[in-house]
Every structure is written in structure tokens, then in C-alpha cells.
Amino acid sequence: MINVDPPAGNFPASGGNSTHNIVSESDSRLAFKVKSSNNEHYRVRPVYGFIDAKGKAKLDVNRLPGPPKEDKIVIQYAEVPAEETDPQAPFKAGAQQGEVIVKITAA
């Protein structure tokens, strides 16, 4: 299980940035993958990564100028062994265990 803090993002339609923490409630190491419903106006960094047990990872969201719109970012996650070095591997193998949705709004 993961949480995102803050759990939503609000941006001016003219563009902007926000930083979120992906926080793990799990006793296991997790890999994550970040997807957006609007790849034309949003850039996220990192797209893939790891979170240690009970740890957190930083997610940067950049909104490019564009029309006002409601979108979402989906963070998928999966448990991985400590020796895993490729955060994309569990998703290529279809091992996704859950996801969290972050609502993002540009006004």
C-alpha cells in the first residue's frame, strides 16, 4: 500500500510545478510506475523507481501551458525483492499489485 502526499495537484493553466512524496506503508520493497491521463501537458519524474520498506520517494510533476482541464496521475506499484535492479521489470512481467490515483487540475 502506498499513499501520496499531497494527494492532489492544482496548477495554473499557464503551467507550473509540484512535488509529491510517494510514501510506502508496506514492509516490503516496492517498485513503482507513474502514468498520466494527459501526456501532452504533464511531465513526471521519475516514471519508474523503487521505494524501500516504509520509505518514500519524491515525484516531480511539471504542467506545461495548455487549456484548463482535470486529469489524473496513476501510480502503480508491485513488491520486488531487495536484489531487483530494474524498476520496470515487474510491470513488464504483469506483476502490478495496486495503484493510487492523484487528481490533478489546471485552472
From TrEMBL:
Query: Where in the numbering of this chain does the MSP domain appear?
Result: 1-107
Chain spans, region Disordered: 1-22
The protein's superkingdom reads: Eukaryota
Signal peptide positions on this chain: none
Q: What is this protein called?
A: MSP domain-containing protein
What is the originating organism of this protein? Caenorhabditis latens
